[in-house]
Design a protein that fits this description.
It is built from 4 helices and 3 strands. The protein is α+β, with helices and mostly antiparallel strands. Strand 2 and strand 3 form a beta hairpin. The longest helix has 10 residues. It is globular and about 30 Å long.
């Protein structure tokens, strides 16, 4: 699946950059603690502004193996 297909077919209701709560929902309702473990490991790329994490949706696609 290419990026444009992924954006229209998977998680279309989410913005291009999601927060930790949205990431939890996208990954099936995992715990917030697990979200932070994933982010701290660097497996999913994110950036921090203040004390809030922001995760590009494409990073979640890569984590889930949706993109080729």
């Amino acid at each position: 699946m290419n990026l444009s297909e992924a954006y229209t077919l998977v998680f279309a209701e989410y913005p291009d950059v999601v927060n930790t709560q949205q990431m939890r929902q996208m990954l099936g309702g995992i715990s917030l603690k697990t979200v932070y473990k994933i982010l701290q490991s660097g497996t999913v790329q994110s950036f921090v502004i203040g004390r809030r994490h922001f995760i590009p949706k494409v990073s979640i696609f890569k984590y889930l193996g949706i993109l080729e």
